[in-house]
Amino acid sequence: MLLWWWWCLSQGRTHQGLDIVCADGSTVYAPFDVVLNGVLTVYGNPSTAQRIINTGINLQGEGLCFKLFYVSPVQTSGLIRKGQKIGTMLPMQRTYPGITSHVHVQMCDKSDPTRYF
Known about the structure:
This is Leukocyte cell-derived chemotaxin 2. This protein has about 120 residues and is mostly beta strands. The protein has a single domain (about 1-115), classed as Glucose Permease (Domain IIA). Helix content is about 5%, strand content about 45%. The protein has one helix at about 90-95, and strands spanning about 1-5, 10, 15, 20, 25-30, 35-40, 55-60, 65-70, 70-75, 75-80, 85-90, 100-105. The strands form 3 sheets. It has a 7-stranded antiparallel sheet with strand order 1-4-12-8-7-6-10, with no helix packed on it. It has a 3-stranded antiparallel sheet with strand order 5-11-9, with no helix packed on it. A two-stranded antiparallel sheet has the order 2-3.
C-alpha cells in the first residue's frame, strides 16, 4: 500500500519520495534485480530515538538509482535478485509511536518515484 506520494508537504518540509506501508520487523524484498551500493544514514543529526531507524540502503537496477530508508540491509554490496530479501524494516514505532510504519523510497536525483510503483 502506498502511503504518501512524492511532492507532499510534511510538517513544513518538502517530502521528496514515496512511502510504502511496511510493518516493523517485516522482510523487504527486491522489486527487481538490484545492485546494492552501500548503507546510507537517514538523519544527519539524529535524536536518540531516531538512531534506531537511522539506516537505509543505496540501490541501482533497471536503469534506476534509488534509496530505501528505514531498512536494515542483509548485505551492503553485490547483486540481489528480484524477490530476494534486501533487508528488514526497522522499528519505526519505537521512534514515532502511532505513525504508519513505512519504507521511504527516494530517487537519487530526487525525482518522483511514483511511476515505478
